[in-house]
Write a structure and sequence with these properties.
By secondary structure, the protein is α/β, with parallel strands linked by helices. Helices cover 43% and strands 12% of the residues.
């Protein structure tokens, strides 16, 4: 960690930390108000039209009055953390050193709590700026087991959320994610392996492979995030915390015959875990 107030010169701190001096002196350029508005619009359109790529989104944005090129739309899509959800040739891999695991849920009957957990990240717009929300859900009950917000999508952030879920709810048999670099990183996969958890990963661009997390994002955004204008990260955390508590304890789900995720989760726990 670089401490700009420390008496040790930044150059020496960089050497000790094993990082380049350029990264120490670099100050990231803040996101402009115009780009923040574009990012929110892209996020909204993606929820409605998950198949839309940069070209289609560019044209949709022009209908909304945004004058923007395809390349800039593609850049902002990457920053928001989304891509068009369709199968396409896998001509390149961003992190070839990371192992990608097979999808284990196809044809699997998922009928009980802690059989399968799933995790994903999504972009959360604020009045000025944005954060990322990570959440873990129990597949059978839809209960949100753990979550947090961060200004970055680093692997250690995801590991912290994972540790939170493991500490509170035990462990699943299978853990499913997409192929994002946070989830293919050694820090994340080794944590799962240490617990003896089978690792499952979506097919690239196949939203149906993690459909229940996608539905959670839709609920969070339309029922909470898009109705607010969070001023700070703390404000965003408070609002999302309030909503996810409602989602778990009071929001009925038709898939469970009107039960809440909490009720469905504890009703389907194996007897040994429910008694613990």
């Amino acid at each position: 960690m670089i401490d700009r107030e420390h008496e040790l010169p930044l150059k020496r701190q960089a050497e000790l930390a094993g990082i380049s001096r350029g990264s120490v002196y670099y100050v990231p350029k803040p996101t402009s108000a115009a780009d923040l508005a574009l990012m929110r619009a892209i996020d909204e359109l993606h929820l409605e039209h998950p198949f839309a790529g940069a070209r289609m989104l560019r044209d949709m944005l022009k209908v909304r009055g945004f004058d923007v090129g395809r390349k800039h739309v593609a850049t902002l899509m990457r920053r928001v953390g989304i891509e068009a959800l369709y199968r396409k040739p896998n001509t390149s891999k961003r992190y070839p050193a990371h192992q990608v695991y097979p999808y284990l849920l196809r044809g699997l009957a998922i009928e009980r709590a802690n059989q399968v957990w799933a995790m994903d990240l999504t972009y959360i717009p604020m009045a000025r700026g944005f954060v990322y929300l990570a959440a873990i859900i129990d597949w059978a009950s839809r209960k949100v087991l753990a979550w947090d917000v961060s200004i970055s999508m680093e692997a250690d952030f995801c590991v912290r959320v994972l540790d939170q879920a493991l500490a509170r709810f035990g462990k699943p048999e299978i853990f499913n994610t997409d192929q994002g670099s946070q989830f293919t990183s050694l820090a994340f996969t080794e944590r799962l392996k240490a617990e003896g958890i089978a690792i499952s990963m979506d097919g690239r661009g196949c939203w149906r492979d993690n459909v229940f997390v996608e539905r959670l994002w839709r609920s969070v955004k339309y029922e909470e995030v898009y109705l607010r204008a969070y001023e700070t990260v703390s404000h965003a955390r408070e609002g999302i915390s309030r909503y996810l508590n409602f989602f778990n304890t009071a929001r009925p789900h038709t898939a469970h015959g009107g039960k809440t995720p909490d009720s469905a989760y504890f009703a389907s726990l194996p007897a040994t875990q429910a008694a613990a």
